[in-house]
Specification:
CATH architecture: 3-Layer(aba) Sandwich
Low-confidence stretches: none
Protein name: Hypoxanthine phosphoribosyltransferase
Strand content: 25-35%
Largest sheet: 6 strands, mixed
Order of helices and strands: EHEHEEEHEEEE
Subcellular location: Cytoplasm
Radius of gyration: 16 Å
Structural class: alpha/beta
GO molecular function, one term: hypoxanthine phosphoribosyltransferase activity
Shape: globular
GO cellular component, one term: cytosol
Catalytic activity: IMP + diphosphate = hypoxanthine + 5-phospho-alpha-D-ribose 1-diphosphate; GMP + diphosphate = guanine + 5-phospho-alpha-D-ribose 1-diphosphate
Strand order of the largest sheet: 4-3-2-5-6-7
Bound molecules: 1-O-pyrophosphono-5-O-phosphono-alpha-D-ribofuranose, hypoxanthine
Distance between the termini: 22 Å
Number of strands: 9
């Protein structure tokens, strides 16, 4: 296995999705999002920190002119299981009332974060509120959520890379992969 980011290769079990596959998928999603929002003003909302890479690459793949804002919420802390308690660490800078809003996520795992976000942002009366996520774990869902654009459905395993962390590490890997058991202390 070839790993681009130095010193992280030994911690990885498997590359699940390559950089090339991510790029191709984002181009595909961007074309669909462009079609949906043609002629409209679109605000894309990235969910920090995980969605930084998806936001940066998706935004550049879109032809639609967008404005960007960020929200930081956390439900995972340093572990691999959602606590289910979502905390706002940073709220939006903008009022979204009457705007077309697209939430951009890196992953939907239990769905608890997104379900909370949809309720929270939905109560601010946007003109529309839709979701694009790079990854989704169908077997981990604790709540059913209607998501317009999904990059990849993946198995119920903890993944890192392309924005996703384990204890804040591995976010800068250019691909999505799984971790070797020794990293968890196994
Ligand atoms: O569907 P769920 O089980 O709720 O998990 C998904 C959320 O978990 C991650 O965020 P995290 O709280 O780890 O913060 P981070 O983005 O700063 O790493 C990820 O970025 C999603 O926002
Ligand atoms: O599989 C995951 N990896 C990293 N962060 C996450 N947050 C929810 N699920 C995950």
């Amino acid at each position: 296995m070839r790993v681009d980011a130095k010193d992280m290769g030994a911690d990885l079990k498997q590359v699940l999705i390559t950089k090339e596959e991510i790029d191709a998928k984002l181009a595909e999603l961007a074309a669909k999002i462009d079609a949906e929002y043609a002629g409209k003003d679109l605000l894309i909302v990235g969910v920090l920190k995980g969605a930084v890479m998806v936001m940066a690459d998706l935004a550049r793949a879109l032809s639609t002119p967008v404005t960007m804002d960020w929200m930081a919420v956390s439900s995972y802390g340093a572990g691999t299981q959602s606590s289910g308690v979502v905390r706002i660490l940073k709220d939006l800078d903008t009022d979204i009332k009457g705007k077309h809003v697209l939430i951009v996520e890196d992953i939907i795992d239990s769905g608890l974060t997104l379900s909370w976000l949809i309720n929270n942002l939905g109560s601010r009366e946007p003109a529309s509120l839709k979701v694009c996520t790079l990854l989704r774990k169908p077997d981990a869902a604790k709540v059913a959520i209607d998501v317009e654009w999904v990059g990849f459905d993946i198995p119920n395993e903890f993944v890192v890379g392309y924005g996703l962390d384990y204890a804040e590490k591995y976010r800068n890997l250019p691909f999505v992969g799984t971790l070797a058991p020794h990293v968890y202390g196994g």
